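Write out the 3D structure for:
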Amino acid sequence: MKLKPIIEEMRNFCPSFEQRVYGIGSFSQLSESVSTESLPAAFVLPVSESPEDPATSSRYRQKVTFNFAVILMVSNTEDEQGLTAWEQADDLKKELFRAILGCDDAKAGKDWIQFEGLSILEINRAALTIQLDFSCEYEINDEDTRHGADIDRLGRFLRMYTDVDVIAEKGHPDGRIEAKVLIDLEKTK
């Protein structure tokens, strides 16, 4: 699943971040000495994908749960106990919920986004860093697979020829063809 649309939604609907919503590349370059002027900030990161077993049918179908995290960093310089930082993080969490919870993208084939949990990653004198976990489901189908491409290359099923061997007295076919059948699907429409 692509994370750029989530980042864009957060930039549009979470004014407190003042556009400071970034992806995985920015998070990996984050130094330990974060400037408090650049906070609050958020980072959207992929976490994991958990597939179910594929559905057994002539077509490929498999549901996948995509898990991603939003890392929130808020300044922790206003008070020694960190209460202001937690209050600000809680307000940011509510903005984030309004921006992405229940959001779906039917065109992309993914289900709505839901909240999975919160954990504190780090707290120091400069910043409070928390992780909010989210998930959504999507489906892999024939259009996305080699199986589907192979079926598409077969073309339309137009007619079928078959030989009929009637079951003999001993309960199995005797090897003698009693009838030949042509089923023309174009004529039977």
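The first helix runs from residue 4 to 13.
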